[in-house]
Amino acid sequence: MTRFMATAAALSFVALAATACNTPQERAVGGGAIGAAGGALVGQAIGGNTGATVAGAVIGGLAGAMIGAGTAPGECRYHRYDSRGRPMYDRNGRPVTYLAPCQ
């Protein structure tokens, strides 16, 4: 049971770190890490040996990296500010925004 809890804690830290990723490269790394960890667990559960664990980690890591890179946002919405640093609003009271590549 303690081994399961340690694995679950490690996976939750990886998942938490991956949520802050915005660029396709960051999303690919985060998705690859989550996929590799999940694939290793599934490979161990199915095969029960080191070869199955490694194969699951490799397959999961590749799949996670491809999915992570493919789901990255291409453009982000930013708020426009005036020269004093105050947010700008249109005549209907909505914030003025613009689209630009994510940073």
Describe the structure.
The longest helix has 24 residues, at 24-47. This protein has helices spanning 2-18, 24-47, 50-70; strands spanning 75-79, 97-101. The protein is 60% helix and 10% strand. It has a two-stranded antiparallel ribbon. The protein is elongated, with a radius of gyration of 20 Å. Helix 2 runs antiparallel to helix 3. The chain has 103 residues and is mainly alpha-helical. The model has no long low-confidence stretch (mean pLDDT 82).
Give a brief description:
The chain has 103 residues and is mainly alpha-helical. The protein contains 3 helices and 2 strands; from the N terminus they run H-H-H-E-E. The chain has helices at residues 2-18, 24-47, 50-70, and strands at 75-79, 97-101.
Could you outline the blueprint of secondary structure elements for this entry?
Blueprint: H1 2-18, H2 24-47, H3 50-70, E1 75-79, E2 97-101
Antiparallel strand pairs: 1-2
Helix pairs in contact: 1-2, 2-3
Descriptive terms for the model:
103 residues, mainly alpha, 60% helix
The share of residues in extended strands comes to 5-15%
Largest sheet: 2 strands, antiparallel
Radius of gyration: 20 Å
* Mean pLDDT over the full residue set: 82
Helix-residue proportion: 55-70%
Please provide the count of β strands: 2
Low-confidence stretches: none
Q: How would you describe the oligomerization state of the chains in this entry? A: single chain
What is the H/E order? HHHEE
Distance between the termini: 42 Å
